[in-house]
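Posting here for the record, re: alpha-D-glucopyranose.
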Amino acid sequence: MLRPLKILFVTSEVRPLIKTGGLADVSSSLPAALRDLGLDCRILVPGYPAVLEHCGTLTLVATLPTTLLGPARLLAGHMPDTHTPVYVLDAPQAYQRAGGPYLNTDGKDHADNAQRFALLSQVAAQLCGPDNALNWQPDCLHVNDWQTGLAPAYLHFAGHPVPSLITIHNLAFQGVYEAALLSILGLPSESFAVHGLEYYGDLSFLKAGLFYSDWITTVSPRYALEIQNEALGMGMQGLLQQRNHHLTGILNGIDTADWNPGSDLHLTHNFTYRATAGKRRCKAALQAELGLAQSADAPLFGVVSRLTHQKGLDWVLQIAQGILTQGGQIAILGTGEPLLEAGFRQLANQHPKQVAAFIGYDEGLSHRIEAGADLFLMPSRFEPCGLNQMYSQRYGTLPVVRDTGGLADSVSDGVDGFSFTGETAHALWLTVERALAAYHDRPLWRRLQQTAMRKDSSWEKSAREYAALYAQLIAQSQH
Ligand code: ADP
Ligand code: GLC
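Prediction output follows.
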C-alpha cells in the first residue's frame, strides 16, 4: 500500500480554538477532509491563550532553536472536534498576551506582528527539515495568507527539498514591513529584490509566499482570475500574471456537520429540505429573540459579517429604507468599522420592530440568523470565497450577492440565490426587488429553496483537488 502523503498545514487561526474569519473555518474543515481522503495532514498554529486553553491535552515534543521572540516549544495534541493532529507553537513572548491574534485590546496591530508571524513561518520551515525532532517529516508544506508567507522563503533558503503551496484567502492583507527588519528576521539580503520579497521599498510577507512557493491557490476559481487584474490585484497582479501557470482556484467547501440544519444544536428547531416546518419556527424564534415583530410573512433579511468596506454593507444601509417600506425586516450580526457599526445601530434604534443589530461576535446567533432568515445579504465589493452564502443555501436562506470571487462561483442567479453586477447601492436594490418578487411567489420560492438546500457544498470535491495538487508538486520536486 502507498504510504499516505504527509502535509503540514500552517495557519494563524483555526476554529474552534481561535477565529476571526473564514480562514479559521477552512483551517479546521480542509485538513479534516484531507484526512478523510487518507492523507496525513497535521496543523501548526500559534499558542495563543485561547489555543492553549481549548486544545485539551498537549504534550511537549521539542524545544525549538529560534532567534525571534524566544524561547519556543512545540506541543502536540489533537483538535477537540475533528481530532486532526495539531502542533501548537508555544512561544509566550510572542503569543501569550491580551487581545486577538492580530490586534491588541485597542484594536491596533500588535507592534511586533512581523516577528510573531516570522516565528511561525520559521518554525514551519524548520519542521520540513530531516532532523526536526518530530519523527515526522512533511512531504509538502501548505501555508495560508500573509501570516505564513515567509515560510516558503525560509524553506527555499534552508534548501529542504519539500515543495510548498500558499493559499490566498484575502489579497488585501499583505504583511508589509520596513526593509530594516530583513536581517532581524534572518533572511539573506539577496531576498530583498523585485524577484524576491521586496515590495515598493518595503518587504512583504505575502509577496514572499507568492514568489518562493511552488504553487499558489486562491479560495475560488473566479478570484484566481480577478487578482491578475489591476482592479483586484492589490498591487500583486504583475507577479500573479507571471506565476499564472502555477496558480489555480479551488472553491472552499463548508463543514457540513457544523452547518447542518437537520442537527444544528444552536437552533430551537431542526429542519431538512424535505421537512421545512422547523425553518418557519426558527424564523419566529429569531424574531422573538431579537425583538422583531412576529410576522411570518415579512421577508426577513440576514447579515452575518465583518463590518468592513470589503463587504459592501454601506450599500445595505443605503437601501434599508426601501426594504422596510416593502414590509421587510433586517437582522444584522457583526463587528468592525465604527461607522458601519454606528449606522446599523442607528437603523435598529429607529426601527426596533423591523431592524435588529447585534454588534458583537456570537457563533450561536450566526447559526440562528442563517436558519431564521429568508434572505441573506452579501453584496461584497470583492470576496475571495465567502462561506456565509453557502451556509445560507444549506439553510434554505437565499443569498443576494455581488457577482464576484467565490460568490460568483457558488451562487447562480435565479437558481439558488440572486446576484448582481455593478458597484452601486442601486444595483443591489434592483436585485433585492427581484428577490422580493420571488419571495412572494410561494411555489417559485419553494423551488429555489429546495435547489439551494440540496446543493453539495461539502469539501469532498475540493479536498480531492488539493490532494491531486500536493501529489503533483511532490512528484515534480523528486525529478
Ligand atoms: P471573511 O473570512 O472574509 O470574514 P467568510 O464568509 O469566509 O468571510 O467567513 C466569515 C466567517 O465568520 C463565517 O463563519 C461567519 O459565520 C463568521 N462570522 C463573521 N462575523 C461574525 C460574527 N459577528 N459573529 C459570529 N460569526 C461571525
Ligand atoms: C477570507 C476571505 C473570504 C474566504 C475566507 C476563507 O477571509 O475574505 O472570502 O471565504 O478567507 O477562505
